[in-house]
Structures are given as structure tokens and as C-alpha cells.
Amino acid sequence: MTAVNRDRLTRLFLELVRIDSLSRRERDVALRIQAEVESAGAICRYDSAGEKVRGNTGNLIARIPATAPGIAPFLLCAHMDTVTPGEGVKPIVDGAVIRTDGTTVLGGDDKSGCAVICEVLHQLHDGKMPHGPIDAVFTICEEIGLQGARNLDLTMIEAKSGLVFDSDSPGYLFVSGPSAVGMRFTVRGLEAHAGMAPERGMSAIKIAAEAIAAMRLGRIDDETTANLGVIQGGRAANIVPNEVVVRGEARSRCEAKLTAQVDHMVACFADAVARAQVTVDGVHFAATLEHSAHRSYGGMNVPQDAPLVRQVIEAARRSGRTIAPAGTGGGCDANILNQRGLVVANLGTGMRDIHTVREWLDVNDMVASAEVTLELIKLHAGG
Ligand SMILES: [Zn+2]
């Protein structure tokens, strides 16, 4: 088993989380990662994704040349951007656990993945282990709709298969993830004075509330979820509101269930709107609904018997660990890369309670992730 340099890994992680890198502003952290991987022998380039998303850098694409012939290229991928509140991160080290001071996220999502990849490249460089070409890709704008991966210049990458490091437990390899649909509903009622003539109005908020109360939301089943996350409408407490906008999403690893959930949500709004009518001075008014749905991203579905999955399980065994393939409810760069024809699974790095100011990480998990990856690269090289 290959032992990673735990101190170097921890030090780099702590350094990376202290560099602000909200989406579209990943340049500083990209330059730091570039220096790190160049010291491990990588050749770095940037694609033009940054211009397409109006960010300050493109995706960082680092190539590590093969040290042995005839081995297929392998992809290692993590994203550089973090969510808000993510500026001025002050990590607190408590034994093996690293947490935030409670004012920001930690950014272990996904600087842990970036640090793990850097450590793996150092080990390859230091250890003189025979391996094929490695494409290490550090993406931008994952957190704002997987924009870096969508715009990744695949002509700059040779690998057709590999790992994304962007989930919590290194005991799981996520091989399937949901497709997601974003939705927007605009309910229009009729404005009226709330005190003098409420019967001359129709409350768009009340109509939306009836629709929502009738709706199945949250966890629908083990592979389907739905959420309404934003509601906006009304002008003042003394006006019957004539418009409310509700935005939400549905996700499922099963396309038929996803379609059914979206249809159900639309039907709930349509039914509530159809019931809302009022006649004012002999004129009949009916509430209206405008809605749109768009696919946010497609699912990922790597077969459990794919060579990649079997090799990761075997690599874990060789490093004295167990990894089980699993499904996730989250979307990540792997969704896009699989949709774009690569075979990519998502390995955990130890990030926990992500997207909250309670985010923390256990260094032992980053170590496990790096060690399994090194065994995997060895296996991949026929070792
Ligand atoms: Zn992430």
C-alpha cells in the first residue's frame, strides 16, 4: 500500500481553503494549484471556459506524462469554486478534524478534492511509480450549475474515464446521480383593496398556497426528491396580491419518475388556479398560471460492473479499506462528464455538512481517498 504524505496534504488543504474562490473568481486558487502540480511535474494549460461564464479564469487542465507505455489515460477531477458565505475562511484544526469558525463554509467542497489530487500527483512524482498519462482537471463554476464542466474543452483531455472527488464519505463511490429539472410558476390573481373590497380580488398567494399544500415535496422515494425553494410576490399587507412567483426543482435517478413528479407539481398549480374565479361588476375574472420547466442537468449512470467501478473496489481492498458503489441525490461535474461521453464516478474525500457554516472534514478521510486513488492508478497500470 502506498502511504501518502499526510502533513503535506493537510498543509495544502489549509492553504487552499484560505484562498477565496467564489464561483467566477477562482483565479487565485487556480494559480496556487498550478504551482503545486507543476512542482509535481505537471504541464498546465487553461481552457476558454472562463470567458464563456464571465469568470476570471478557465478550467485548469494539468497533464502528467506517462512513465510507462501502453496505459490508457486517466482523469482526476475536482472543482475550485466554493459557495457563499465562503470568503475569509478561518479553518480551525482540532486533531484530525478541520472545521470553520462558524462564520463561513469551510470550502472542503471541493478544496479537499483539489488537495487529494495534488497529493496523488506528488506521490506519482516522488515514487517513480509506473503509470499512464494523467489528466488532472480543476474546474470552475461547479456550484452555479456545473458551468465549468459544461464548457470544459474536451479536446484538451485524452482520458475517457476517471474519478471526480466531490462527495462526503470515502467509503462510497457514487456511480449514479439524478437528472434535475428546474421549474418556475407564476400565479396571477386580481388586485384589490384588502380592507374595503377583498371580494373584488383574488389572492395569488392564497392560490399558490393551495397548490403547494396539495403537493408532494421533499423525499418522494429513494431516488426522487422535489423542492420549492423560492417564493416571491405581493406588494403590501393591505393589497390583495395579484402575482406570486414560485421556483423549485425535482430530481430523480429514474427519468419516468422525474417526469411524473414535474407533471404532478404543474397539475397542483393548474388545479388551484382553475378553482380561482371571481365576478366583479358583472365581469368574470379567472386566475392564470404561467409555468416553465428546464432540464438543469442529466443524470449519471455508470454500470456497477464497469471496469472503473471494479478497479476502485479492488484498489480499496488493497489499501485495507472497503468502498461500496452507491447512488446520490446530488449533481456534480461527473453528471456532465458522463453526459459528454466519459465514464466518471465520484469518490468521497471526507467533506461533511457542506454548504453550511458547520462544514467540517476529517483529514483521515482525505488520506483514505488519496491512498485508494494511488492504488487505483497502480491497478490501472497493470500493477
Ligand atoms: Zn462540490
**Integer average pLDDT:** 96
* CATH class category name of the largest domain: Alpha Beta
The stretches of 5 or more residues where confidence is low (pLDDT under 50) are none
CATH domain fold name of the largest domain: Aminopeptidase
Q: Give the terminus-to-terminus CA distance.
A: 12 Å
- Total of domains: 2
What's the name of the CATH homologous superfamily of the largest domain? Zn peptidases
The global form is elongated
Number of helices: 10
Tally of strands: 22
The level of helicity is: 25-40%
- Main sheet? 9 strands, mixed
User: What is the correct CATH architecture of the largest domain?
Assistant: 3-Layer(aba) Sandwich
Bound molecules: zinc ion
Strand content: 25-35%
Structural class: alpha+beta
Rg calculated over all Cα atoms: 24 Å
Structural overview:
There is one protein chain. This protein has helices at residues 6-17, 27-38, 49-52, 108-127, 147-150, 204-213, 255-275, 307-318, 333-339, 363-380; strands at 43-46, 60-64, 74-79, 92-94, 97-99, 134-139, 161-167, 172-177, 179-188, 192-193, 218-221, 224-233, 239-240, 243-252, 277-280, 283-286, 288-297, 300-301, 324-327, 343-348, 351-352, 360-362. It is an alpha+beta fold. The chain has two domains: 6-177 and 299-380, Zn peptidases (Aminopeptidase, 3-Layer(aba) Sandwich); 179-296, Alpha-Beta Plaits, CATH 3.30.70. The strands form five sheets. Strands 1, 2, 3, 6, 7, 8, 18, 19 and 20 form a nine-stranded mixed β-sheet that branches. Helix 1 (6-17) runs antiparallel to helix 4 (108-127). The radius of gyration is 24 Å and the shape is elongated. The model has no long low-confidence stretch (mean pLDDT 96). The site of zinc ion has 6 residues, from helix 4.
